Automatic annotation (TrEMBL):
It comes from the Bacteria. One of its GO terms (molecular function) is transcription cis-regulatory region binding. Residues 90-109 bind DNA. This is TetR/AcrR family transcriptional regulator. InterPro entries: Homeodomain-like_sf (IPR009057), HTH-type_TetR-like_transc_reg (IPR050109), HTH_TetR (IPR001647), PsrA_TetR_C (IPR041586), Tet_transcr_reg_TetR-rel_C_sf (IPR036271). Residues 27-67 are annotated as: Disordered. The keyword Nuclease does not apply. Residues 67-127 form the HTH tetR-type domain. It holds the Pfam family TetR_C_30.
Length: 279
């Protein structure tokens, strides 16, 4: 049984609700004496100006819009999970990093596992983009006379993932993905099965189209080699520290594609030659 960290959902919601209605914290419980109507010199009743119109709240006093707070929680959790792993991060640390009340994490995501799955769902469009690229490469590789279908398949897998790694909006997600591919926490399995396994299955099908003579065992090895090389690239922060100033750039994506494609060819070449040698 997985023990989930309890979150006091109701602890701060009253405070949040009051701020959402434009009332500063602590004023909702004050009693307000009935106001007296002032009379103008001509005898007509004059409206008393609303105190909030005379003294507007500072911009920093207004609550952050709900969507912005939800995004702040997602981004903070994504960064912390990528850096420390699922079990090393608490919900309180996520709330502090996002600068939101602890109760909001539970209000939006229920528990830490729900927040983890929401991160993968948030980046779902990236996975769909990579799957479309792999499907196009699979169809091209299956055409007769295609000179380098394997290279096209490898590029369709490698290039999108490395773009994630080098884009500020997805770099932490790429690191998180590399961490979970290496050793997934049990709580991460539902998210990986929903968002990552279909991508890997599409890659396997594309490799099969590019290498129709290869056995399923050989294709599985090719998939492992490709994943290992890409994973090292996505989680290269350790190498960044060891060899300063050598961070992989756009040119490294092409080199990585060549490395994987040529490595697969070299490994599978002896297997292809075996039937001819026996004959």
């Amino acid at each position: 049984m997985v023990l989930r960290e309890p979150i006091g959902v109701a602890a701060d919601l009253g405070h949040v609700g009051r701020r959402w209605h434009g009332v500063p914290a602590g004023m909702a419980s004050r009693s307000v004496a009935p106001s007296r109507r002032t009379v103008s010199p001509r005898g007509a009743p004059a409206r008393r100006p609303h105190p909030f119109r005379l003294m507007p709240l500072p911009r920093s006093s207004f609550p952050t819009p709900r969507n912005d707070r939800q995004q702040a929680i997602l981004h903070a959790a994504e960064r912390l999970f990528a850096q420390r792993g699922f079990h090393a991060v608490t919900v309180r640390q996520i709330a502090e990093a996002a600068e939101v009340p602890l109760a909001l994490v539970g209000y939006y995501f229920a528990h830490k596992e729900g927040l983890f799955r929401a991160i993968f769902a948030h980046h779902g469009p990236l996975h769909h983009e990579a799957m479309r690229a792999l499907e196009d490469a699979r169809r091209a590789a299956a055409l007769p006379g295609e000179p380098d279908g394997l290279r096209r398949v490898v590029e369709a897998f490698v290039l999108p993932l490395l773009r994630w790694r080098h884009h500020s909006a997805s770099q932490h997600y790429a690191q998180l993905l590399a961490r979970e591919l290496a050793q997934a926490a049990p709580e991460a399995e539902p998210a990986l099965q929903e968002h990552v396994d279909p991508l890997l299955q599409r890659l396997f099908d594309a490799l099969q189209a590019a290498l129709p003579r290869a056995s399923r065992h050989d294709l599985a090895d090719a998939l492992r080699f490709a994943l290992g090389a890409v994973q090292a690239h996505l989680a290269e922060h350790r190498l960044d520290r060891l060899v300063a100033g050598t961070r992989a750039g756009p040119a490294s994506a092409q080199r990585l594609s060549e490395f994987i494609a040529n490595g697969i060819r070299a490994v599978l070449a002896p297997a292809r030659a075996q039937p001819a040698e026996r004959a």
